[in-house]
Specification:
It is built from 1 helix and 6 strands; from the N terminus they run ββββαββ.
């Protein structure tokens, strides 16, 4: 299971999924091994690397501090951020994120 939703202590709904870089992607540092993407229903987008072990099993109370620690990402113009949007793009693939 690579996708979760949770409600934080402020009542904000967050979607969380694991991004894994495709072979040959030019990424540096901790991002080379993947990251968690946190997206709120209010439009906030954050990334956390490295991906914590067994993050899919964590409770909302355990996911919230990870979300707080994650770096906020400015969205690019268009339909979303290239590293976090399309499941079949040339940089990453999502694990378990439903296609909407």
């Amino acid at each position: 299971m690579g996708y979760r939703e949770f409600v934080d202590s402020l009542g904000i709904v967050w979607k969380v999924w694991n991004n894994v870089p495709l072979a040959g992607a030019a990424l540096r540092g901790e991002m080379r091994n993947g990251w968690l993407t946190f997206e709120s229903m209010t439009g906030c987008l954050r990334r956390l690397a490295p991906v914590p072990d067994h993050w899919e099993l964590l409770s909302a109370e355990q996911l919230e501090p990870l979300c707080s620690r994650a770096s906020e990402v400015r969205r690019s113009s268009g339909s979303g951020d290239a590293l976090d949007s399309a499941p079949n793009d040339s940089v990453t693939r999502r694990h378990g994120k439903p296609n909407n």
